[in-house]
Amino acid sequence: MTNSKDAEGLAWQVGVWDRMAPVYAQEVDQRFIPVVDQVLLRAKVQPGQDVLDLGTGTGAVALRVARLVGAGKVVALDVSPEMLRVTKMRAEAAGLTNVSFKEGRAESLPVDNASTDVVLASLSLMYVIDRTSAAREVARVLRPNGRLVAAVWAGPDQCDIVKFQQTAGSFAPPPPVPGVGPGAMADTRPFLDALNASGLKARVETEALGFTFDTFESAWDVLTGVTTASLTSERREEAKAAVRAAMWPAEARGPRYFRNVTQFIVAERTN
Fold this sequence. Notes:
The chain is α/β, with parallel strands linked by helices. The chain has a single domain, classed as Rossmann fold (3-Layer(aba) Sandwich). It has helices spanning 3-31, 33-43, 62-69, 81-94, 131-141, 160-169, 189-197, 216-224, 233-247; strands at 51-54, 74-78, 99-103, 116-122, 142-153, 200-213, 256-269. It has a 7-stranded mixed β-sheet with strand order 3-2-1-4-5-7-6, with helices on both faces. Strand 4, helix 5 (131-141) and strand 5 form a beta-alpha-beta unit. Helix 5 packs across helix 7. The longest helix has 29 residues, at 3-31. The model has no long low-confidence stretch (mean pLDDT 94).
């Protein structure tokens, strides 16, 4: 991939995530709490540790970790200025003073070598353009005995949110860069290999988690409203019909539970 293509892909992502910030704050964060709980369970964060929240979004992980580390420090990192603005507002409202906010990406972490005890990436690595570089960067910033815990969705056959979003996305033009999106890390092996090659010992654990939407329209607005906004009205209606047929058949007009198999990547530096 050329540098210009990489830049185009990054700019596209920043635009999408900037528009998604209010949706995450109002609708998504609450539904992803079970994933965050499992990330933190595996992270085993201790008081005094320094933590990097990679792809912090609107701060669902960073703000909880800030309370756990006490005198330690949390870096909330994201490519989206608008996501970071919301996170900063939330931190200030909560009176948290041990969180810093940095605009940046996984491929070039704005963090010193061996400066971090724990790197967390809750549902963010799927959108990283160059995950091999990201694996090297995570290894670079971790201290001895440091740990990465990341959450990624499984494939559409196991993960309803991926099926929903991929079905809708099939009606839109392809993104500027391939290999990114909700189901992009259904096969975790390439990233595990990259982590292991970077000096970390990596494994995967899975959990079936989920959330509920009361209506199809609310699910559509939250999960695809931004990414399908550029479609023509006719094309958007075609996409909605396809998603409804796949996920919300006529006999199931009420609430729907989304069963989402989540893969937790745990990697540790042993030296």
